């Protein structure tokens, strides 16, 4: 039982350190390439860090419990030997995880923009005006649970190699930070090319923070296109 709590604590620390390292790196980069971008936002950034660290526990405790159950009792469909499934499943499972997480995010995000839910929960995320690199996990605890518990639930249903799961979490972390950074880090030849019509980067999510009722997606724009909620790119 001790090892269960240790695992939950360790995972919370890992998520918190991962957040501080990634957001810290991109905040530092912002000071280098866009000096003054976060001027006057010190109080807001403190708030973003506090909420994000609370979210780290909400992400970390279930992840720790699952990691413990995986090790001790073979819970979940996470596998360690890449040959347990056909090799083509490695990239397919990676993409499938991103697509499913994006779908979950799009619809729950739209729900959170209903006026009552927005006031009670999602308003905290939008209190960042404009968001900074520290806003990646700036969520009300209920929103953190809605956003953060999806992948822990998915590992019980869809098989994934542990390395691919690590890659999914890396993409989630980096895009969560860079999408809120307040400037576009990806080159114009990606953002303004055909691929950019389908992929979400800071230029897309920044418009969500400017106009609220549009651009709800997480990684991909197809739900926004299909539901006519895509209002194009902003120039952060
Ligand atoms: Zn946001
Ligand atoms: Zn929103």
From TrEMBL:
Segments traversing the membrane: 6-29, 49-68, 88-107, 144-177
Domain of life: Bacteria
InterPro entries, A to Z: Fatty_acid_hydroxylase (IPR006694), Sterol_Desaturase_Related (IPR050307)
Pfam families, alphabetized: FA_hydroxylase (PF04116)
UniProt keywords, alphabetically: Membrane, Transmembrane, Transmembrane helix
Subcellular location: Membrane
Main location: membrane
Domain (Fatty acid hydroxylase) ranges: 94-229
Protein name: Sterol desaturase family protein
